[in-house]
Amino acid sequence: MKFQELNLHPEVLAGIEKAGFADCTDVQSKVCPISIQGRDVMARSKTGSGKTAVFVITILEKIARERAEGRHPKAMIVSPTRELALQIASDAEILSSGMSDVRVECFYGGVGYDKQKKALSEGVDIYVGTPGRLLDFMNSNGILFSTISMFVVDEADRMFDMGFYPDIQRMFAALPDKTKRQTMMFSATLSTKVRNLAWNYMNNPEEIELEPEEITVNAIVQELYHTTRHDKFKLLLHLLKKENPSSVLIFANTKYMTVDVSERLKLNGYNVACLMGDMPQEKRQKALERMRDNKIWGLVATDVAARGLQIDDLPLVINYDIPEDFESYVHRIGRTARAGKNGKAITLADEEYVWGLEAIENYIQMKIPVMWADSTDDVEDLSAGKKIYNKEHLAGVTSTYSHGKRPARPNGRGPVRSPKRANVSKVADKRRSSYVRKDAIDDAKLSRMSQDERLAYYRKEFFAEEKRDDEIRKPQPANKAPASKKPRPQSRPCSAASSQRDKVQVGNSKPAKVQPKPAQKGLK
Predict the structure, then answer these.
(1) Nearest to 345 by CA among 356, 337, 357, 353
(2) What is the DSSP string of 306-341?
């Protein structure tokens, strides 16, 4: 299907033509005819399928039609990460280039609040941003959610994995009623949480399930190299020399490994930069811009860049660490072979993360071809033996409680300490105290004792409460012989006469004197 067949507004078609789109992708051909009619849509689509163009074109088409009728609709697009929000805003500006009076602004944390507040005062038609910053402007009345007539949630499953589910619920509660707005939700997986959100806050959405996120083997060449942690970096240098890509994206599982790999690559002459979730927003954005402008050759990133990051003409992706989540493998290598182009994904498996390989292969339903490096002697690791610790990259990343030290007070009066806790005696402490020596024991005296003498000593000193009754019976006077026990009379059969005689004797016996009980203290 072609976009001209959708009967779009001429200004919208002009923006599509400027973006270089001619034929619709699978998700565009199935969702656009429904969403353009103003119906709610819940779609499952794989990464890089062109779903961004679906909701942007739908929004622009509605703006163009309603403005012709004198109305001014507003739209909001929510994404889980700042990088994805910036990418969506960039695509929206290109697609809206045929509509000069449409204003698109991106709102995210980590940058100047006043600058974004000023943009709001100038008027915005399409709000794009992350949940946190959009809620900040909602609370300060900078954005009136009651005026939003189109609401889009992109990467919904990842949004919930990152803990934004309560924020999305707050945003839905502030929006107009679901019958008075159009809502579109896109997700790689339609989990129970995603479906519950759709049922609660969407108006009878049309559920569209495209093919599950999978790997197209014809588009991405996958290779697997088995190695060790000690030899892995040198193997990386060998592969970079062998492949010689125009640009590369390398993934590591931790931010510390990301810094280590990037710094060692720099020492070996490669122009690379870091991309981590805890980096200041300005540094993250600058690294992405330098990568897109070909000012740097490669990026070493954590999974924060795996989904939603779009880099044109990226021929090679390397998994320096096997991802711990099998879905992350798909998102990582999905950065290459975009828009119908070819690409390669190389994975290095060492003894630390190789256990996750089986789950990945089960998920993609194929065995990754195993390759073997002939030799790594063709490269020299110039970073070998050097300790890597880059304060510039780790600034603001490491914890203030690093190395077990308490943080210093702002005025330099020493470390901050928590208030002293009262010594509360517990039942367990009392029970344990019975097994602790009551007094200091002469070790020299104990050393002269035999094993039986020591056991007897310990039993006497520490386990007195467990002595038997015959051991703690009061001693009798020495001049008095112990009372002899009388033999127990043997039982004999009882006749009727003797039984009657016993009853008479019992009846004639005098009652025993009852001693009065002493009065209890404290009772009147």
Answers:
(1) 337
(2) TSS---TT--EEEESS--SSHHHHHHHHTTSS-TT-
- For helices 326-333 and 357-364, angle between their N-to-C axes, nearest 10 degrees: 70
Residue span of the structural domain in which 106 resides: 3-209
How far apart are the C-alpha atoms of 390 and 392, rounded to whole Å? 5
Q: Which residues are paired to 345 by β-bridges?
A: 222, 317
Q: Quote the CA–CA distance of 488 and 502 in Å, as a whole number.
A: 19
Give percent above pLDDT 90 in the chain.
38
Query: Residues 194, 230: one domain?
Result: no
Residue 210: name the closest of 40, 8, 450, 41 by CA: 41
Domain boundary among 181, 209, 237: 209
Q: What percent of the chain has pLDDT over 70?
A: 71
Which of these, 247, 252, 331, 310, lies nearest to 83 by C-alpha position? 310
Q: From the CA atom positions of the chain, what is the Rg in Å?
A: 39
Q: Which of 175, 209, 243 is at the close of a domain?
A: 209
pLDDT digits (tens, 9 = 90+) for 290-327: 888 889 999 999 886 555 567 778 899 999 999 988 87
For residue 259, what is the domain's CATH number? 3.40.50.300
Q: Does residue 470 lie within any of the structural domains? A: no
Task: Answer yes or no: do 224 and 205 share one domain.
Answer: no
How many Å separate Cα 239 from the centre of its chain? 32
Q: How far apart are CA 212 and CA 67, in angstroms?
A: 37
Total count of domains within the chain = 2
CA distance 381 to 196: 53
Find, among 145, 183, 176, 168, the residue nearest to 59 by Cα: 183
In whole angstroms, give the CA distance from residue 215 to residue 208.
Answer: 20
Residues 227 and 339 in one domain: yes
Predicted model pTM: 0.54
Using DSSP's 3-state secondary structure scheme, residue 221 falls into strand
Say yes or no: 237 and 331 in one domain: yes
Residues 130 and 274 in one domain: no
Pairwise CA distance, residues 309 & 84, whole Å:
6
Q: Residue 132: which residues within 8 A CB-CB, separation 6 or more?
A: 109, 167
Do 273 and 125 reside in the same domain of the chain? no
**DSSP secondary structure, 126-156, as one string:** EEEE-HHHHHHHHHTTSS-GGGEEEEEE-SH
Q: Give the bridge partners for 222, in sequence order.
A: 345
Residues 166 and 237 in one domain: no
